[in-house]
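Notebook p. 47: complex prediction with acetyl coenzyme *A.
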Amino acid sequence: MKTGRKAGIVSTGKALPVCRLTNRELEYIVETSDEWITSRSGIKERRIISGTETNSSLSEIAARIALERAALKPEEIDILIVATVTADQLLPSSACLVQARLNAHRAAAFDLAAGCTGFLYGLTVGQQFIETGAAKNILLIGVDTLSPIVDWTDRNTCVLFGDGAGAVVLQQVEEGRGILASKMFSDGTKAELLDIPAGGSRRPPTLKTLEERAHYVKMNGPEIFKFAVKIMVESTTNVLNMCGKKPADISYIAPHQANIRIIDSACKRLGLNDEQVLTNIHRYGNMSSAAIPVLLDEAFEAGKLKQGDLLALVSFGAGLTWGAAALNW
Ligand code: ACO
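Predicted complex, structure tokens below:
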């Protein structure tokens, strides 16, 4: 439905755990080295929740910053979407816990599980509510706290992930700004490439599942690597085509932060130069749904984002899911 309304991001916020875990420290936990992690992934350190920090507490902090910057009160939020795969509890949703923390008493609240593509899925879902006129103010949070569910005895996975939250406010924006194009994809036939085998309703927790360490993230890294480079290039090209743009027109690309080699390879194939590419993986590792909103918030805080800048956002993750969006800041 074409209504003439345009949805856009009007503010950002972020929250990162206090505790830093460096590659050097990881050398004491699993058989690895700073050299291996840096050269194979680009990661130097990551943030890990501790004490009272949780998925919903990080979300609340990120949300309050984004709300303040949008001059919006919590009670003005119509819809609160939390893109995450690591809610505080299986039930209820993280979104409801965040809704309570904020006292956003008018808001509908729900979680959106699309792996690391969650933020982009949430952006596209939120866009529909704004552009149809069904909602005015949407709070979208991309948050993941993977550290409690990675296997700290498995060097193939535990060195790669970190915790964090990013939030944005979506509203109707003036002509020439906002989301120009977005497209989401999935392929559930590749679900086993990145999963947590037990703990859901099919294999609830038992002593056996605990002994098998089946409640932790399992990943086929090399297969995801190949897939990721291909779809990052295809998805970005696709959304740019949808709005009549090309890679050279992009002010910045905010790609999912899973591996610097994936980012470098995809951006090289797109013909982008280093100045066009936003990265923070060296400081935070892979924060799943938080990666892109935290990148945006850092770019905003650094004064990089100017009104009218063309941004491309692209991500991939468990599911498998992937997608991209193009927007004018
Ligand atoms: N330290 C030292 N050695 C390690 C480590 C480590 N932390 N991890 C693996 N290795 C070893 C393996 O045991 C293996 O050794 P072997 O050859 O003797 O068996 C070797 O390193 C693996 O080498 P490669 O397969 O060549 O490693 P690769 O270059 O593929 O890098 C990596 C592995 C980093 C996992 C990479 O494949 C990757 O980043 N894949 C994508 C992962 C990803 O994007 N995941 C998230 C997607 S969705 C989401 O974001 C939630």
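Notes: Residues 99 and 109 are 7 Å apart (CA to CA). The longest helix spans residues 221-242.
Next step: compare against the earlier run before touching the bench.
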